[in-house]
Specification:
The protein is α+β, with helices and mostly antiparallel strands. The chain has a single domain (4-160), classed as 2-Layer Sandwich (HIT family, subunit A), CATH 3.30.428. 28% of the residues lie in helices and 18% in strands. It has a 5-stranded antiparallel β-sheet with strand order 1-2-3-5-4. A hairpin with a 3-residue loop joins strand 1 (20-23) and strand 2. Helix 2 (58-82) crosses helix 3 (141-155). The radius of gyration is 15 Å and the shape is globular. The termini are far apart. 30% of the residues are buried.
Length: 164
């Protein structure tokens, strides 16, 4: 595949999406392309062509949402351990710009700018998405490893085993 970003789901299935942290029951857990809020991750559907949650049969929807819960829990635990200023995670499924089902897991921190700390991340300046300072890079390898390990821990935990 020439550019894994052109089809993130197909590239994940092909093993060519470098952001994949783990394959879950009905999603791929991936680390975000940008890390201005360290730990930003997403759950990408495993079903090509699915644009919205309601496109999935109900049992698969529930399983996908269980994957989102698992990833959000892993992000929360990793970010809490790594940064004392961690506050919470925000989980959202918007789909207004990217035409594939994905849930965004945004860690939120006390060190965020005061006007933004209690607001949606979408109110951050749009330059955050393209600023090379925040681009996913080798500097995030430790964070990536911690997230992958936490996901694996949860996947093996009875608390997170789910059979829809």
């Amino acid at each position: 595949m020439s550019d894994w970003r052109s089809d993130r789901v197909a590239s994940a299935h092909a093993g060519e999406n470098p952001t994949v942290l783990a394959e879950l029951n009905d999603s791929f857990a991936v680390i975000g392309d940008v890390q201005w809020l360290p730990g930003y991750s997403l759950a990408l559907t495993k079903v090509p062509g699915v644009d919205r949650l309601s496109d999935l049969p109900r049992r698969q929807r529930i399983s996908y949402l269980a994957d989102v819960d698992l990833l959000a829990s892993a992000v929360e635990n990793v970010c809490r351990r790594r940064d004392d200023a961690f506050r919470r995670v925000n989980v959202e499924i918007l789909g207004n710009a990217d035409a594939f089902l994905h849930a965004r897991i945004w860690p939120r921190y006390g060190w965020e700018p005061a006007p933004l700390v209690k607001k949606p991340v979408w109110l951050y300046p749009s330059e955050q998405w393209s600023n090379p300072q925040y681009a996913l890079s080798g500097a995030h390898d430790g964070l990536r490893a911690d997230l992958a390990a936490e996901i694996a821990l949860y996947r093996n935990s009875m608390e997170f085993r789910f059979n829809a």
